[in-house]
Every structure is written in C-alpha cells, then in structure tokens.
Amino acid sequence: MTDSSCSxxxxxxxxxxxxxxxxxxxxxxxxxxxxxxxxxRQVRSLCLPILFEHVRMIYSSRRGxxxxxxxxxxxxxxxxxxxxxxxxxxxxYRTYLRVLPNLSHVQFEGMPGGMTSTLMxxxxxxxxxxxxxxxxxxxxxxSAAHMFPYTVNNPLVRFSLASHCFRELVSYMDGIDxxxxxxxxxxxxxxxxxxxxxxxxxxxxxxxxxPWSHMVELPWPRIQSFALxxxxxxxxxxxxxxxxxxxxxxxxxxxxxxxxxxxLSRTPLLGLSASSAAPGFPQLRSLTVAYPxxxxxxxxxxxxxxxxxxxSLRDEPRYYLYLRNKNLVMSxxxxxxxxxxxxxxxxxxxxxxxxxxxxxVYEVDAGEDELLQYISSAYLYLARLEVHRYRGGxxxxxxxxxLATTFANITSLKTLHLNIDCDQxxxxxxxxxxxxxxWSKFIxxxxxxxxxxxxxxxxxxxxxFLDPRRQFATWIEYRPxxxxxxxxxxxxIGTQRPDCDWSPYVPLRG
Length: 510
Fold this sequence. Notes:
The chain has 510 residues and is α/β, with parallel strands linked by helices. Helix content is 31%, strand content 16%. The protein has 16 helices and 16 strands. It has helices spanning 3-9, 15-28, 30-37, 41-51, 90-98, 117-126, 167-174, 178-194, 212-215, 237-245, 319-324, 328-331, 340-350, 368-378, 400-407, 433-454, and strands spanning 54-56, 78-81, 105-108, 129-132, 158-161, 202-206, 225-231, 253-259, 286-290, 310-314, 357-363, 384-390, 415-420, 462-467, 474-478, 488-489. It has a 16-stranded mixed beta sheet with strand order 1-2-3-4-5-6-7-8-9-10-11-12-13-14-15-16. It is globular and about 65 Å long. The termini are far apart. 34% of the residues are buried. Mean pLDDT is 82; it is low at 1-8, 141-146 and 505-510.
C-alpha cells in the first residue's frame, strides 16, 4: 500500500491515536495489526514497537535462525521461554538474551532441568524482571547440586514465582517430593528476594516458601506491588505478614490470594486491630483478598487507603470448583464464603468511595438486597463490577433481571461480570452437547434481557458470563445491538479471559 492510499485509509490521524489503534489490534486482532503495519512507512514505524515488544523464544534444530529479525530486535522488551521437550543449552540462552539490547523481562513457562546457577547468572546479567510461571518447575531435585548461589550482582526490580493451591496434587502426579521442593525453594528465595530489598518494585511469592523471617528484618523502600499465592501453612503467618506490610508503606497493589486449609482454624488475614492503630497506605490503589475473615474487624480492612480504586473480596480456589468437585483434592480446603450481610459489613467498614472496580463473592442471605443497593449507590466512579452469587438455603430463583435492574442505577458502569449459581449450569468439562447447548441458549437469553435493562447506563459496553465447559472457566462477553462487531465474543481457546489460573483435572462428563 502506498503512502497516498494510506492517507485515504488513515486520514491524517495523530500518532497517539494510531498507537492506541495498534494497541487494541494487538489485544483483539493480531493479524489486523500485521496488516496495519504494512500500510505505510510512518504507520509501520509506529506498529513495530508494539508488534515486537513481546516475543516467544523458538528453539528448534529444524528451523532457520531462532532469533527475531535483526530490525525488530531493538523493540523487544519482554521474552517468553515456552516449555520444550529438550532443554536448550545455557549458551543458547546467553546468546539469545544478548542480541536483544533493550530486553528487560524474561518469563520461563517451563524448565524441565531446573534453574541452574549459570542460567540465573545469564538472566541477572541481562534483565531486571524475572517471571517463573506455574509449570516452570524451577527447583527440581536433579538440579539441586548445580543451582545457587549465583555469582553476579542481583539487579532485579521485579520477581514473580507463580504458585497455586494445588501444588501438592501436581507434585504427586509428577512424582516429586513436595517437602524437598519446598525446602530447596525456601533457601533459594531467601537469597534471591532478600538481595532485592533495596531495589524491588514488584514481588509475587508462594505463601508456603516466602522467606518471612528474613523479609521482616529488611526495609522495602521502593516496593509498589506485593502478591502472595498458594496456601496458608501456619496460623503465625498472619502476624508475620502484618509486620512485613508495616515496612511496605509505598505499596500501590496488594494481593493476598492464598487458600485456607480445612484443618486450620479460621483467623483474620492480618489479625484483629483497632482502626486507630492501622498502618497507612496512602498510595494503595488495588487490594485483593481471598476469603476475608467473617469478622469485619480483620486488620486488613482497617488499613488506611484513601485512594483505593480496585477492591476484590474473592475466593481461592474458586468456590464453583469446590461445589462441583467435592473430591479429596477440594475437601482439603476450607471454603468460608461470605454471606451477603457479611460482605456488606466489610464494604461499609472499608469505605473506598473512589472505587472504579469491585469484585464480590457471596452466598445469599437476608442481607442481599441491602448489599446490592449499597453497591449501586456508594460508588460514584464504579466502571467494572464482578459478582459471584451463590444460592443459600432454599433460594432457587434466577436473579438475572433483579440484579440488572439494581445495577442499572450505576451510571458510570462499563462492564458487568456475572457468575450466577443456577440449575442450568452444566458440569465442568461437560461432554454433552445437549446440556451445553441448552445452557448456551439460556445464558444468551438472559444476556439479552440484562443488556436491554443496562442500556440506561450511558457508558455500558458489555455483560459477561462464565463459560463452564473447560477446566479453566472463561468469560463470554455479550455486547448490545449497537456494537459494530461480533456481539458475542467467546474466548475460543480459553487463554484471553480465564477466570481461574489453575484447577485440578476433572474427567469429561456426560
């Protein structure tokens, strides 16, 4: 396409507008972004940094050069290393990282041989952000003798070791001794994380192996994001976590997404605290807590957060997994889901009038109507609302219309995510076309009813419902009649809008 024809396709749009278009295309239509990049030299110069910002490493003896095109290398900032059957040699990683001059972030999706000392050195020499995904298996017994200590300075400002509450099951299936893995991981994290204390801006750690005793002794002057995943393993973690957070007053994001074990007593996440003694987090914008204590005096809700804009009172693991998979795996977890009245008490305790995003998970009781009315009137800037509603007692009606009628009063609302516990939901991994077809028709009809009611919200864009077919439940977005594109946006491959990061294997059901 020539520059003259491009001027007809992109009529003198400012560069910042073209960049926004390219960013949206990368999210929803990658092929469309590739076509856009061929429009003209000007447009291509704007698209290349977006096209090649994040690339996946390719390692195969059957292909040509495994590296990105030379002209694209300066634009690469993030690199993903996928699971491969044959682990690349360490020198391959060294060369790959060095040909990308502006690379700052590496994610390992799988490491069959574990993280060796040499490979860690290579990463620390080239990047400032390191991410170990769920299946990375960065600590394996066979590699223990070749692992840390690393021999170079630690320049990391971001580190993430993703975890989930089903590690015991995964280790059993893989034939790995979890106690040995935890012991090794604890030693490695004690060195790696504590070396970051002066520079760390973002940390995501497993609850079971985070180096608590070391971290509470150190200052964290630059930390902005702190997340904990996995499972509680001791009642003492609440008090230690409280002490640690008192050293993290610069936090913007706090996420405590850890599962409660059935054999542990229910305790507040940060212990009980009078509001007058609660520490202040003047910069905190986002707070996520899984299964907050039924007592709204939990100190986590007494934290002074005057600028909070995102709040999630959620479950971990997801309560629908617990309800629909009552097996030995799920029975090891407690599921102390909030009643609607308890959720209301916490929201009132927290305040947060500036919220733009809210997630609530609750079981119906007599306080539901008051809860919904509070949500619809207390937050003038609420743009995203996610509700997971579970039936309680003899509740059997489908509340789609009543929910939409109440939430239509939120004039700032843009998106509404609904997971409604009802009889029409098929089992997870349902293999029956008839059952799934019946559910699809039911949800589609409910979505149209909800959309017709929500049209009174001037900014409303879509309503989303959970698709239960897969082991990883995803959101299906339904858009109103005026929307120019596809009105039903399904996450066909299940990776764009997952609701849970990992769930135990569930056999196909009829």
